[in-house]
Amino acid sequence: MTFPLSRSLPRATAIWTRSYGTVQTSPSSASIASKIPQVLQDAVNATAPRTTWTRQEVQQIYETPLSQLTYAASTLHRRFHDPSAIQMCTLMNIKTGGCSEDCSYCAQSSRYTTGLKATKMSPVDDVLAAARIAKANGSTRFCMGAAWRDMRGRKTSLKNVKAMVSGVRDMGMEVCVTLGMIDASQAKELKHAGLTAYNHNLDTSREFYPNVITTRSYDERLATLGNVRDAGINVCSGGILGLGEGDEDRVGLLHTVASLPGHPESFPVNALVPIPGTPLGERKMISFDKLLRTVAAARIVLPATVVRLAAGRISLTEEQQVACFMAGANAVFTGEKMLTTECNGWDEDREMFERWGFYPMKSFERAGDGLAQRVVESVKEKESVKAASA
């Protein structure tokens, strides 16, 4: 099945005209269609992800009029995913504060005075107890974060993390960790322990990155993603919106992620939560249209990826969240806390899902598994029939 986006516009205009008459102030269907880049129309008809995106192509998609972009994203989302399924994830801070990095947005950096008290690593039993609570409340992925630059010299900590990973997997849940930079050997150990995914965000574009962080390079972040990918662990990597970046930087982030050797299994979309005491503590949250545009563009260039609403979701209205879901977002962080920031609660999310007809995605099950393959088979079958009748 193809999606002739531009051809659908004249028909819609004709229906409107028959029903309500011509609206002289509205642009013609031809002028609207002319604003829809061919690359977007081709992307919406895709039957598999591609990693050969150019930055110009991503920019053309990102700059598409928002109503058309979200419509296209919604259509493609239905090809690769069940649009009613949303994964509920819970993120626990297993080691708070004291980080040596200078990330300008982070309350856990030891360089800033934010009122956050550094703690030792949480005991394994406490973490597993929190995971059981999350599962009982409907979360199917349990994520654990530690405020470290990297895992060098942390043999005991790594041993405890592996025990946490194994324990969560034994509960039948997906498990993700974010521990800073890891090498190939550490990635293999985590894979052996049963780790589902490793989160390591790129945050923003390569060009804007030095304005946000100076203690870890962009290439070091990409190297960690490579170690995770080579170990056979799912990559979870996204960005933070509202750091002071421009549209070109959000395009750059999307292009970098979409042109990796393999698309990330998960793409978290974070909206900056300004933390007093950090260099970005006085910034305002990014406008919703920019966030929605990023979600929709991510769905287009990462069709099979889980697009995850992460930090800052608590500042969105219910209707804004649903608009993101309709544009291709299909996972949320939910629970008592998200690292050091406030988070939407389980009860609140369940009630929202019920009102709008969504349901929680199961562990280790992507609602769209097999959909893309069935589309490919359908296309091949039609081509075969056409060739036989020629």
TrEMBL record:
Gene3D superfamilies: Aldolase class I. It holds the Pfam family BATS. It comes from Aspergillus nanangensis. The keyword Metal-binding applies. Pathway: Cofactor biosynthesis; biotin biosynthesis; biotin from 7,8-diaminononanoate: step 2/2. The lineage of its organism: Eukaryota, Fungi, Dikarya, Ascomycota, Pezizomycotina. The keyword Metal-binding applies. [2Fe-2S] cluster binds at residues 143, 176, 236, 308. GO terms for molecular function: 2 iron, 2 sulfur cluster binding; 4 iron, 4 sulfur cluster binding; biotin synthase activity; metal ion binding. GO terms for biological process: biotin biosynthetic process. PROSITE patterns: RADICAL_SAM. This is biotin synthase. Its cofactor is [2Fe-2S] cluster; [4Fe-4S] cluster. Its EC number is 2.8.1.6. GO terms for cellular component: mitochondrion. Keywords: 2Fe-2S, 4Fe-4S, Biotin biosynthesis, Iron, Iron-sulfur, Metal-binding, Mitochondrion, S-adenosyl-L-methionine, Transferase, Transit peptide.
